[in-house]
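Ligand: NAP. Inputs:
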Amino acid sequence: MLTRRFGPTDFTTTAIGLGGMPLSIKGRPDETAGIEVIHAALDAGMRLIDTADVYCLDHEDIGHNEALIANAVADWQVANPSAEILIATKGGLERPDGSWTRNAHPDHLKRACEASLRALGVDQIAVYQLHAPQEPLVPFEDTIGALADLQREGKVKHIGLSNVEVDHIRRARAMVEIVSVQNRCHPLDTAVFKNGVFDECAREGIAFMPYSPVGGWKDRKAIQCHSALGRVADQLDASCEEIAIGWLMHLGENVFPIPGASKIRSAQSSARAGSLDLSAHMEALSAALLPKRR
Ligand SMILES: NC(=O)c1ccc[n+]([C@@H]2O[C@H](COP(=O)([O-])OP(=O)(O)OC[C@H]3O[C@@H](n4cnc5c(N)ncnc54)[C@H](OP(=O)(O)O)[C@@H]3O)[C@@H](O)[C@H]2O)c1
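Predicted complex:
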């Protein structure tokens, strides 16, 4: 599988990462099956995993995904001690009674980070991402200030952002180093190409992690029968999902799609996308999928 440097960090990891969310939210598989999915992703070569404290059922279940991943990775590493796995987690949301709400207040982030350290069983989080800003209720600079404190205290090695605009990236970078940005991005949601986030990350060498790369819950079916993806999929004996992930991966050296999986076959298919050579198809795919420049 293709590997690349993760933004300005010293980590080299796989261009495709496992998105952990479907293993811990409503409809999740049981714990044994969840661990098998993570093992399948690792066996297939993935070395990057995206998680969050709030990938769980509700406020009483916070940390479910982080703990599941930590257990699965520790178990897998018994037989693979030299493999380096980059786990990126997030803080800044809450799950009161199962709903999804923002809380980017410094006090919350500091408490959430402590809980993530415990759930992951580590002394330092490799990449800690702000899940989402909460302006105007919480000044963005206060939120980033909390992340800077966590980094100074050694609890966080690198800081990332999620669900942000270019202005957030620039304001955050005036205060701390930002290594990654994670926004929704797939062939039917191309906002990041219009609002400048994709170009900003490429220009500044920031890792960009397209989330919901095969459409998430909303656009998954439309991706499966997308004509431009389907034409290439037929030629390469691949699936539309694999072409969607591969297309994103080929858009730049700094791009790390993180497809989710609750089934072994989804994780294995996404890993296959990491070995696709789409160079002969990129022009046609991008002409069909990227928003037209005026
Ligand atoms: N930062 C944020 O605000 C945010 C928001 C949403 C997601 N995320 C992150 O991004 C990750 C991915 O997003 P997502 O899980 O919402 O959507 P997604 O990656 O588009 O995946 C949606 C579903 O598609 C299926 N799938 C994935 N890859 C496939 C493949 N190669 N072939 C066939 N089916 C495939 C999986 O189904 P099965 O479950 O049936 O295996 C998966 O649950 C999440 O897991 C999470 O880590 C971040």
